[in-house]
């Protein structure tokens, strides 16, 4: 089952997601990147039905880019989050998208922020959030060890603690995770945590 | 079981008032329901019966020389084998192949449709479409029909300017880029053999043998897979069919019958 979680630290926001693409009992691949870079300073970590996840997040990504082209300035994180929620809500009564989203971003004026958007278009600004079966373990871990203004090292340590807990306690634990960070220097991949190496074509 | 005769009873009023108005409204619209104790369960079972199970084994993997694609050839409807000679590897164009798992009609139609779109792209842009582009076209089409009962589990394998490409696309709208995939009811069996024998630097013959062996093992254990194991190779000059072997014959090739010592012999009993 898909595990996505994230938290806000001192001048940065960090999100981690599992990387397995599963179809009933089969793992089709274990290096599927589920954290999309929305623009230079925003990340979307998405979990949910495979088709919906990719199609919906790409739709948001292209619309955010369009706004920037039309208006010359990028959307703020709060605006992007509200736009995403609005699109989910509009689709909800006709053809709902079963995607749960954690939107992390950094704005020059307001600093880092994290938004929790679930598949029925709930929107919350949070300091830490999680989706999936992994949330049962990572939420309490984060509640216990989180304090506002954590440094990158402390936050990575907490993320690793959560990954370890998920790996040891969840019966269908995903083996690999990807961690991405967004701060004043932009949104980028931070690290992979792999326990099963996928054979990659050289 | 008491027969339900409510349908036979007339809904007309007892005393003989005949008026056109009453006659028009007298019988409520109805249809016969199947006589069961558990109608909801019956409905679920009926839906499951028509839901096509992906009774097949297909696989594809990228290696140093290109892409190897293989599939079985059995079509089954529940417990009945309807055909042992179905072409499950569909030739989209001379350098791209698609595999079929799920509903045969859905796969054949949409692959043909994809071939048309790829050709239109070539004519409009004066260059071949990439495997990425072709698989995205198919994924978008299938996504727009999601929830409407299409059953397609396909892999798009091809060779384009960036080299070999392999994508898994299904009717739920999922699209995955990867180096090794197997789709169908026999896929877990095929994955085991494929994963343990896979190396990136296989030669073409070794890769073909790995693909053939994986399909054979899947057909051995999975009842819904069988027939002929076809193996195709996609290289820089397009695809080429390498072999099509009956899996029964493959069985005796891999596990030939050894003469073994007899444990007990039947002895003729001298006249009663």
UniProtKB/TrEMBL annotation, chain A:
Its main location: cytoplasm. Component of the proteasome, a multicatalytic proteinase complex which is characterized by its ability to cleave peptides with Arg, Phe, Tyr, Leu, and Glu adjacent to the leaving group at neutral or slightly basic pH. The proteasome has an ATP-dependent proteolytic activity. Belongs to the peptidase T1B family. Keywords: Cytoplasm, Nucleus, Proteasome. It is found in: Cytoplasm; Nucleus. This is Proteasome subunit beta. The lineage of its organism: Eukaryota, Viridiplantae, Streptophyta, Embryophyta, Tracheophyta. PANTHER family: PROTEASOME SUBUNIT ALPHA/BETA. SUPFAM superfamilies: N-terminal nucleophile aminohydrolases (Ntn hydrolases). The keyword RNA-binding does not apply. It comes from the Eukaryota. It comes from Hevea brasiliensis. InterPro entries: Ntn_hydrolases_N (IPR029055), Proteasome_alpha (IPR050115), Proteasome_beta2 (IPR035206), Proteasome_bsu_CS (IPR016050), Proteasome_sua/b (IPR001353), Proteasome_suB-type (IPR023333). Signal peptide: none annotated.
TrEMBL record, chain B:
Gene3D superfamilies: Glutamine Phosphoribosylpyrophosphate, subunit 1, domain 1. Its main location: cytoplasm. Keywords: Cytoplasm, Hydrolase, Nucleus, Protease, Proteasome, Threonine protease, Zymogen. It catalyses: Cleavage of peptide bonds with very broad specificity. PROSITE patterns: PROTEASOME_BETA_1, PROTEASOME_BETA_2. It is found in: Cytoplasm; Nucleus. It comes from the Eukaryota. PANTHER family: METALLOPROTEASE TLDD, PROTEASOME SUBUNIT BETA. Belongs to the peptidase T1B family. The proteasome is a multicatalytic proteinase complex which is characterized by its ability to cleave peptides with Arg, Phe, Tyr, Leu, and Glu adjacent to the leaving group at neutral or slightly basic pH. The proteasome has an ATP-dependent proteolytic activity. Component of the 20S core complex of the 26S proteasome. The 26S proteasome is composed of a core protease (CP), known as the 20S proteasome, capped at one or both ends by the 19S regulatory particle (RP/PA700). The 20S proteasome core is composed of 28 subunits that are arranged in four stacked rings, resulting in a barrel-shaped structure. The two end rings are each formed by seven alpha subunits, and the two central rings are each formed by seven beta subunits. The catalytic chamber with the active sites is on the inside of the barrel. Component of the proteasome complex. This is Proteasome subunit beta. It comes from Hevea brasiliensis (Para rubber tree).
């Amino acid at each position: 089952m898909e595990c996505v979680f994230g938290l806000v630290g001192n001048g940065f926001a960090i999100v981690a997601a599992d990387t397995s693409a599963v179809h009933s009992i089969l793992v089709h691949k274990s290096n599927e990147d589920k954290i999309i870079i929305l623009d230079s300073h925003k990340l979307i970590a998405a979990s949910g039905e495979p088709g919906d996840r990719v199609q919906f997040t790409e739709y948001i990504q292209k619309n955010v880019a369009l706004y920037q082209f039309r208006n010359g300035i990028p959307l703020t994180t709060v605006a992007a989050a509200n736009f995403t929620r609005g699109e989910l809500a509009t689709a909800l009564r006709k053809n709902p998208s079963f995607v749960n989203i954690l939107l992390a971003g950094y704005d020059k004026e307001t600093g880092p922020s994290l938004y929790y958007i679930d598949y029925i278009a709930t929107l919350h600004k949070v300091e830490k959030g999680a989706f999936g079966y992994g949330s049962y373990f990572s939420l309490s871990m984060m509640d216990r060890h989180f304090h506002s203004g954590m440094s990158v090292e402390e936050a990575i340590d907490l993320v690793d603690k959560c990954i370890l807990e998920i790996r040891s306690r969840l019966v269908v634990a995903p083996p690999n995770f990807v961690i991405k960070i967004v701060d004043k220097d932009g949104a980028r991949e931070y690290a992979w945590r792999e326990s099963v190496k996928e054979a990659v074509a050289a | 079981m008491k027969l339900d005769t409510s349908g036979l009873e007339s809904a007309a009023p007892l005393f003989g008032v005949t008026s056109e108005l009453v006659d028009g409204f007298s019988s409520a619209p109805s249809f016969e329901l199947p006589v069961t104790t558990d109608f909801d369960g019956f409905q679920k079972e009926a839906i499951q019966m028509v839901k096509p199970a992906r009774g097949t084994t297909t696989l594809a993997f990228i290696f140093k020389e290109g892409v190897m694609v293989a599939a079985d050839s059995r079509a089954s409807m529940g417990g009945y084998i309807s055909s042992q000679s179905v072409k499950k590897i569909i030739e989209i164009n001379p350098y791209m192949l698609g595999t079929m798992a799920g509903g045969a009609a859905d796969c054949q139609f949409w692959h043909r449709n994809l071939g048309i779109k790829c050709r239109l792209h070539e004519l409009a842009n004066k260059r071949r479409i990439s495997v990425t582009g072709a698989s995205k076209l198919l994924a978008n089409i299938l996504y727009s029909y999601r929830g409407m009962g299409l059953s397609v589990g396909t892999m798009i394998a091809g060779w384009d300017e960036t080299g070999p490409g392999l994508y898994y696309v299904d009717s739920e709208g999922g699209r995955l880029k990867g180096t090794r995939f197997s789709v169908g009811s026999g896929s877990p069996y095929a994955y085991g053999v494929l994963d343990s024998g896979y190396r990136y630097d296989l030669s073409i013959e070794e890769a073909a043998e790995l693909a053939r062996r994986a399909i054979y093992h899947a057909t051995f254990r999975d009842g819904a897979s069988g027939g002929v194991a076809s193996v195709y190779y996609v290289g820089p000059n397009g695809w080429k069919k390498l072999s099509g072997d009956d899996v029964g014959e493959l069985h005796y090739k891999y596990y030939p019958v050894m003469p073994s010592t007899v444990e007990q012999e039947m002895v003729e009993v001298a006249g009663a």
